[in-house]
């Protein structure tokens, strides 16, 4: 898939043999092309959409980028580069980025918003151009995390998941805001709770009701891990897609048919009972 991209980018690269006295632009890659962690950092060029642009904090600013396959990576600007990239990059827009630095993820030393073995450095020599190629970016993430891996992610990190809607808890109002929890099942038959806040709840009220009855499949993107309450929660950056066309959906369709024939309500009840017992310990503390 990378070869057509390199071909389309060739004209652009040959027209810009030197910028600021530097050597020709490095080759274009996909985020998943960088596999050799013993040979980092690597300076490359990428096509990327800014999925999330986080507010500037102290001496850095973080972004979540997506490439043309749907793979995501966290990008970071530091020091004197923060103001420059804050002005150049807009959330929701797509860019050609020359000379970005692939580095090891430093999540053990500093909080990162998504789990990934690598992160992208927006450095002094990085050049930003608009993306003008006739390539459509995918509507869904490439990787959707299994629920057993979600439980292992750090608190407050963002994840993308897919699952079958098995149950909806009653509507609540927390801090004056509507809130409702859904129980999802993934292809491993693991369960997780997704708490849905105001906007995504009200905008999709009918769809949520039908999802419970029909056991629809949903994709939730940029859901935030809440280890205290043992759930995921929608964020300002989240999206919910009902019955999406994704390459991982076929196994779930088989499970969905099985659940319609045999709802397994005891299984769900036991899961919710354990969750309520956990919440009771938090409240008592």
TrEMBL record:
Superkingdom in the source lineage: Eukaryota
Database matches in InterPro entries: NA-bd_OB-fold (IPR012340)
Protein name, per record: Uncharacterized protein
């Amino acid at each position: 898939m990378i070869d057509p991209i390199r071909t389309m980018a060739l004209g652009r690269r040959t027209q810009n043999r030197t910028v600021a006295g530097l050597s020709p632009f490095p080759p274009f890659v996909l985020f998943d092309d960088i596999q050799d962690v013993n040979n980092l950092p690597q300076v490359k060029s990428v096509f990327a959409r800014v999925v999330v642009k986080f507010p500037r904090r102290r001496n850095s600013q973080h972004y979540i980028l997506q490439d043309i396959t749907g793979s995501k990576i966290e990008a970071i600007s530091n020091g004197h580069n923060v103001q420059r990239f804050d002005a150049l990059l807009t959330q929701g827009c797509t860019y050609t980025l020359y000379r970005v630095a692939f580095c090891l993820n430093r999540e053990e030393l500093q909080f990162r918003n998504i789990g990934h073995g690598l992160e992208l450095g927006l450095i002094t020599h990085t050049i930003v151009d608009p993306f003008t190629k006739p390539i459509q970016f995918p509507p869904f993430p490439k990787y959707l995390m299994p629920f057993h891996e979600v439980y292992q992610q750090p608190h407050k990190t963002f994840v993308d998941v897919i699952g079958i809607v098995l149950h909806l808890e009653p509507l609540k109002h927390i801090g004056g805001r509507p809130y409702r929890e859904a129980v999802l099942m993934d292809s491993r038959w693991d369960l997780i709770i997704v708490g849905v806040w105001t906007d995504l709840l009200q905008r999709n009220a009918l769809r949520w009701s039908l999802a419970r009855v029909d056991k629809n499949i949903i994709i939730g993107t940029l859901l935030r891990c809440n280890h205290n309450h043992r759930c995921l929660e929608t964020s300002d950056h989240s999206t919910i897609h009902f019955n999406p066309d994704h390459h991982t959906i076929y196994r779930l369709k088989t499970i969905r048919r099985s659940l319609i024939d045999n709802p397994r309500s005891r299984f769900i009840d036991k899961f919710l009972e354990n969750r309520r017992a956990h919440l009771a310990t938090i409240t008592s503390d």
